[in-house]
Amino acid sequence: MGEKNKKIKYISLAEATKYCDYSQEYLSLLARRGLMPAVKIGRNWFTTREDLVHYIQKMAIHNGEIDSENIALVDAAKEFGLSTDYLCGLALKG
């Protein structure tokens, strides 16, 4: 199955709050300002788990919580033959 045939799995910002310490309102603000990738469908904003994890990682690097030399989840998935969604789930669980 090619890359083009993959469906994007969106999660609501309400669901995204289960995986991070941010409120739905804050995630909505980030989405509206274009600071975190998201799409608006009707009245609600949606993002992907990958984009949420990427934003959390980016902020952790910015705040000095993790070393910027760590490998990105997308790169780790390719290198180890795992799905990015699986690695995102692991990362979000801590």
Kindly list the characteristics that best describe this protein.
94 residues; mainly alpha; 3-stranded antiparallel beta sheet; globular
Would you spell out the secondary-structure blueprint of this structure?
Blueprint: E1 10-12, H1 13-16, H2 24-32, E2 39-41, E3 44-48, H3 49-62, H4 73-80, H5 84-93
Antiparallel strand pairs: 1-3, 2-3
Overall 3D form: globular
Major beta-sheet overview: 3 strands, antiparallel
The helix-strand sequence is EHHEEHHH
Widest beta sheet: strand line-up: 1-3-2
* Domain count: 1
Low-pLDDT runs of 5+ residues are: none
Alpha carbon gyration radius: 14 Å
Mean pLDDT: 84
Give a quick precis of the structure.
This protein is mainly alpha-helical. It has 5 helices and 3 strands; from the N terminus they run E-H-H-E-E-H-H-H.
Description:
The chain has 94 residues and is mainly α. The protein has one domain. It has helices spanning 13-16, 24-32, 49-62, 73-80, 84-93; strands at residues 10-12, 39-41, 44-48. A 3-stranded antiparallel beta sheet has the order 1-3-2. β2 (39-41) and β3 form a beta hairpin. It starts with 9 loop residues before the first strand and ends with a helix.
